Amino acid sequence: MSGGLxxxxxxxxxxxxxxxxxxxxxxxxxxxxxxxLFFSAVYVLGGFLMLWVGAGHVTWTxxxxxxxxxxxxxxxxxxxxxxxxxxxxxxLNWRSVLGIVWAERTRQLPWLGAIIVIxxxxxTFLAHMxxxxxxxxxxxxxVSQSFDVFLTVNGLAMIAVELGxxxxxxxxxxxxxxxxxxxxxxxxxxxxxxxxxxxKVVRDNLFVMSIWAWIIAVLSLLALLPWFxxxxxxxxxxxxxxxxxxxxxxx
Length: 251
Prior knowledge:
Blueprint: H1 15-31, H2 33-53, H3 58-88, H4 94-103, H5 109-135, H6 153-177, H7 180-186, H8 191-204, H9 206-224, H10 231-249
């Protein structure tokens, strides 16, 4: 962990930086797969837990909006720490890696987790509001038996708006966290500075970071298909790659 308080300087990124980061992410995962599998298991088990509880229940909403986003940054920090230690040639062991993750609870990472939780709560509220605006007066059926209600004019319009608003909100959240999460682990900066720096990286490298966001979205979606099991490989690779892209983005 860097101890300086110097202001991060945003670098210009190109697609070659994305390719390099992906290759480096694969190499880090292959070098220390036990850590990647451990931290990705947090996400996979969380997905199975939400399926087990059942969508549409109050407990499912709470688990998604509160528990999962709050734990996820700490799992990501573990992956970043592994890549950081590989980069510096430091020893890799469970005590050192988990020790850093544990130490983050008293630093800036919980504040970022809280921001993500609030963001998800707002996102959930907005999604329900959009649904009510378009479908509130419609006669609803059991969607497990028929999707006809979503094939109506109102249903298709609702889906289009939900996807559009969701994509915008997802990109805003991506902009706030893609650099801020590894930054607060690596340097002594407050979470507000980290988020503003992250958004500046995305703003100054909009095309490249948009491509990176699409790569994350597509690979994560494909990894979800085989019962979340693909996440066991995709998430650690993307986590390690994000560290390397952060290092290139801030020199």
